[in-house]
Each structure stands twice: as structure tokens, then as C-alpha cells.
Design brief:
The chain has 406 residues and is mostly beta strands. 1% of the residues lie in helices and 61% in strands. The protein has a single domain, classed as Porin (Beta Barrel). The longest helix has 5 residues.
């Protein structure tokens, strides 16, 4: 079996499912030095999310008698890449669909009118559909630098056009009128570029160091028209034009890979997110700023991860665990903490000022059949648990992916 490391950005939060052999996303999607590591492996990689489930694992809300259920995401997030070389430069071109303007799951919330949760008042459904896309190009080369010796370096640029539609449905129980209220809206970012750098240095035959860096970039999002309906009849319409500017934080990532044997590799990574700022502004439907600006500052946070890769005959297994602590901490320009759910100010002794703690567990199983040259097929499953104060969200995602080496 040829050693095949999937450039899988769908499931690996910090990219640790691909850290082995020095090919790592390390929180940066996919490290741009990867093509030069693969050398003669001209290849196609592709995949998509198959099924997702999100649930509220924190119990009933004491103040609202509510609990949200789960959503099955279905087929989404199709991506594909092609890798080849021109002379001694290696490149990867790729695209992905289903890129969203928001990172929102579709949820169903049941709200009850009594403390025993036996009398249903209404059901709220929020359906989000990501409709944007992204294109990317990575170029890498094996370099011989005087100070460090042989090192593989790469650069990456992505063209991003996230967008999405959003439908909120409120269905009251028959005992409370039975009305069905629907709000339909959309949002999209103006196309923007993101950039990444990567380097891989082999210390010896068993040890490899990996470094990656993304650069912070600014982007602008505007909202489309918002339509209100009651029992299927339109009741109101808001013209689009509200929007915000934000700055995608830069990230620095360091990875270490140790080759135990030809069949077994282990790896670890450290990721630092530098934080940034978020400027909320109102735009009219011609894009002109009409005031009401608000500056918010997401704070820096750290992440850690471990991964292992094992090959037996035609089969390959990859497992990983990642931790991110203190993400989502936001301050105003005056230094006050903000609740990222309600956007209200927090007291300094509120536990929410510690932000989100996220733990992610994943496993990928790959098979390269020996009876025919059909490539490698794989399936991945990932579970992520996010804790914010007393609220815990549990999400599970599955995906299928494929690689063919020419």
C-alpha cells in the first residue's frame, strides 16, 4: 500500500488528520508545502460531508423551558484538489462548494410553557444553507538555504466567496393560535483573498518539524432583503444593506512528527490564533456607510493537538484529538467583555469571559484495494464538544473522501 495522506480540511479542525509525513494543515487548512513532500505523486483528492448531527447537551434552560434538538446536514461541502508539478515546482489547485457566510448549524428548538415540559408552546426551526465557494492555489519547492540546509517551503492563496440563505420558522401550537411565522434572509461576503505560508524541515530520518502561518485579511459582508411571512402570506420586507467589516485573525502553527516505524507515525501541534477586530457598520442598499459603527475585539487563544497514523496491509487508520481553550472571548474598544450569544456586556466575574472550550475527537479509515488500481477510499467521523459557560453543544460529522495517484 502506498502511503496516502488525505488533504482533509473537512473534518480535521487543526488539520492533524494530515500532519503525518509532515503534510499538515495545522489549523491552516492544508499546509502549502505539502505538494513538494509528495514528490512524484500526481494526484486527485476529493470529499464531502455526508451527515451531521448537532445537539444541546447542557440540559434544559432554567429560564426558558427550552431545549434545541439536532439537525441532519445531508450532503454538503464538496471539495476537490489536483496536484502536479512544473519542473521542480509543485502545485495544488482546488475548489470547494458549500462555503457559508455564517458557521451556523440548522436547529430545531422546542419551547414549553410549563416547568414540567409537557405543554408545548411553539417550535422554532432555523435552517441555514451555505451557498458560497472558494478556489485555492498552493505552490511549493524544495529549497537549500545556507542557514538551515534542505527545507521545503510553500505559499498559498485562496479566493473566497462565502454566502448563505437563512430561514427561521416559528410554529405555534394549536392551543396558542397555530400561526406559522417565517423569516427569509440571505448574506454574502464580497470576494476576498487569504494567504498562507508553510515550511517543513526534516531533522533526521525519524523526526520532522512543520510550521505554518496565515496572514490576517479584512473582508466585508452585506445582508440581502429580509422577507416576513405569516401562514404563507408576505407581511413585510426589509431592504438589504446592513453589513459589517471584520478582520480574519492570523494564525501561527508548529508541528512535530515522529516516525516510529514504516507503519506507525505520531504527531503533535500547537496553534496560536492572534485575535483581531470586528467593525459593525450599517450600510444602505447602495453600500454607503450610514453610521452606527461598533468595534469589537476577538481575543487571542491557543490550541493543541495529537495525532497517530497506522498502516496495515491495504488499510490505514488515522486518529486525532484537538483542544482549543478560550476561543470566542470578545471585548469592546473600551475593554468590556461581551457575551457572544446575546452581544450584551458581561461582568468581570462572569464565567463566560473565559470563552469557549472545544474538544474534538476524530478517526479516518482508508482502504486502497490491491485487486485493482482504483485509488483510495475513506470515511471519517468526528465529534466536537463545545462548552460556553453552562451551555454545552455536541456535534458529530461524517464524511467520505477519495484519492487517486497517477
Amino acid at each position: 500500500m502506498k502511503k496516502v495522506i488525505i488533504a482533509m480540511t473537512v473534518l480535521a479542525t487543526f488539520g492533524l488528520a494530515t500532519v503525518l509525513d509532515g503534510v499538515s494543515g495545522l489549523g491552516l487548512g492544508s499546509n502549502p508545502a505539502a505538494p513538494a513532500i509528495w514528490k512524484n505523486q500526481k494526484r486527485i483528492d476529493a470529499g464531502f460531508n455526508l451527515l451531521g448531527k448537532t445537539a444541546d447537551a447542557s440540559g434544559w434552560k432554567a429560564n426558558g423551558n427550552e431545549k434545541f434538538a439536532y439537525t441532519d446536514s445531508g450532503l454538503e461541502n464538496l471539495w476537490a484538489t489536483y496536484t502536479d508539478s512544473i519542473q521542480d515546482y509543485w502545485y495544488t489547485v482546488g475548489f470547494s462548494t458549500g462555503v457559508g457566510a455564517y458557521d451556523d448549524p440548522s436547529t430545531t428548538t422546542k419551547i414549553y410553557t410549563n416547568n414540567t415540559k409537557s405543554r408545548l408552546g411553539r417550535t422554532d426551526t432555523k435552517a441555514y444553507n451555505a451557498t458560497g465557494y472558494a478556489l485555492n492555489l498552493s505552490v511549493a519547492k524544495n529549497l537549500n538555504l545556507p542557514a538551515v540546509g534542505n527545507i521545503i517551503g510553500g505559499v498559498k492563496v485562496d479566493f473566497n466567496a462565502p454566502a448563505g440563505t437563512y430561514i427561521s420558522t416559528q410554529k405555534w401550537a394549536s392551543t396558542y393560535g397555530g400561526n406559522k411565522n417565517v423569516v427569509e434572509s440571505s448574506s454574502s461576503y464580497d470576494p476576498y483573498l487569504t494567504f498562507g505560508l508553510g515550511a517543513v524541515k526534516a531533522i533526521d530520518a525519524k523526526q520532522t518539524l512543520v510550521i505554518g502561518q496565515t496572514l490576517g485579511t479584512e473582508r466585508k459582508m452585506t445582508n440581502g432583503d429580509t422577507i416576513y411571512k405569516t401562514n404563507g402570506k408576505q407581511t413585510n420586507k426589509d431592504k438589504g444593506g446592513d453589513g459589517n467589516n471584520d478582520f480574519i485573525p492570523a494564525e501561527t502553527a508548529l508541528g512535530y512528527v515522529y516516525k516510529v516505524s514504516d507503519a506507525l507515525e505520531v504527531a503533535g501541534a500547537y496553534v496560536y490564533n492572534w485575535g483581531g477586530k470586528y467593525d459593525y457598520q450599517r450600510f444602505d442598499n447602495k453600500g454607503k456607510d450610514i453610521g452606527d459603527a461598533l468595534e469589537l475585539n476577538p481575543q487571542a487563544y491557543r490550541g493543541f493537538g495529537l495525532a497517530v497514523d497506522y498502516i496495515y496491509s491495504e488499510f490505514q487508520a488515522q486518529g486525532y484529538i484537538n483542544w482549543a481553550k478560550g476561543s470566542g472571548v470578545v471585548k469592546t474598544e473600551d475593554g468590556d467583555y461581551v457575551d457572544t450569544n446575546s452581544w450584551s456586556l458581561l461582568d468581570d466575574d462572569n464565567k463566560l469571559i473565559k470563552g469557549n472550550d472545544n474538544t474534538t475527537l476524530g478517526i479516518n479509515l482508508l482502504w486502497t484495494p490491491s485487486f485493482a488500481n482504483i485509488g483510495t477510499v475513506g470515511v471519517g467521523i468526528e465529534n466536537s464538544k463545545d462548552v460556553y459557560g453552562v451551555d454545552t453543544t455536541d456535534s458529530t460529522t461524517t464524511a467520505l473522501f477519495y484519492t487517486y495517484l497517477f
